[in-house]
User: Fold this.
Amino acid sequence: MIELKIDNKMVAANEGETVLQAALRHGIEIPHFCYHPCLSIAGNCRICLVKVGGRPKLMPSCNLAVAPNMEIETDTEEVAEARRAVMRFITLNHPGECGICDKAGECRLQDYHVRYGEPEPISIEPKSRKPKFYDLSPRILLDNERCILCGCCVRFTQEVSGSHQLGIVERGSHARVERLETGAFDDPYSDNVIGLCPVGALLSRDFLYRSRVWYLEPVRSVCTGCSRCCSVNVWRRNRHWHLRALGEELNRTAYRVTPFENPEINGPWICNKGYDLHRFMARQRVLQPMIAGRGASVEEALAEARRLLSESINPAALVSAHASNEELAAFQAALGPRLAVYSREDYRPAPGEAVEDGLLIRGVKNPNSYGVQALFGHRPYGVINGHDLLLVWGDNAEDTSFDGARVIRLASFGTQQEFTADVLIPVSTTFERSGSFSNFEGKVNRFDKVFDKPELVQHAGELFGRLA
Assistant:
């Protein structure tokens, strides 16, 4: 450890750390635009300048290595004037669009302008014009007039995703971020640049104009797109800002998904499939229990399922790889001794989907295959086993593919017409319950409930005891 003084406060820093890293770790705020802990040091925004004892000039703290007995000042008048000068330069051609910009509430340029900038602009020259609101890809809008050329998006494609699809072209006041190749920006991790952008230059088409972030709140969850089980935040309407006149459904809407930094599993990144998790969960739901194709109450469906289980001679269960560890334990305790258990994959790679890579994406497209196999082994179902009753738990199973066996279905998504099972009981989704998954490495990742479940939908973990 190295000891240094920042604003007359002794702090301990690790060898190799920069002054900015040490300050942020100790809760000392130094403004920064181009710095990110997972990207290389660019040092081009210059707003992180600090005063170093014994040196005549201000130094960029993002690129200044700590040294023993170093004395740093972050709040002198000289530093404040340098920050004002940087803010004057950055806002010289920045459009005054804060009222309509989707980054409002999360924009560091807004925050720093209030804290360090001039109260009024001093330029009287017309602002420069650049390409505005055009499609960088089908997922991302680019507004080069708002861009401050921090370079975070460019470094991400070079150093993290490896696609090398973005660069800074032209020079001087004409410089701008652009695709380096013709065609769409089709990086499977492209949406991460939206969160990296400190201003409103890179915007999500999916979230565009849907809500201001101060009306929303994040809930920690887990991406179910593959066996990596990345940690994410699901953004819902804050209860203090619930809508009334526009309908209750908007209060049960997931507005967007962003990464939740988890160094053990996904770091600060997720893939585009993770960013689409809220759309995946917004598909057509099964909301009504059914017996032989007709609507029924929950108690009627449970009674019929219990009758089928009691009359069966050779029953089996196909266990969902989207089930939580807690649900798997409840199933094992209630029905495990009675049924032959088979593992199944609810989802397989979709056409055109990135199947697997060396960063985050895994080939198994279900979150808890590891948990299922750890408890029940890897035992795929085959019709030659001669079961007369099947409890099929999970989505995307064909009720007619079980060779004449009676079928009890526990499903979350689909239309009523799709199901021909003897008994259908709708069950909750990951957004409607709390629990945990075990990813492909066996690391357990927890998720919290985002919304209450619909009235007739059941929690699978509570259902098995009632079926037994």
About this structure: The radius of gyration is 27 Å. The domain at 290-467 is CATH 3.40.50.740 (Rossmann fold).
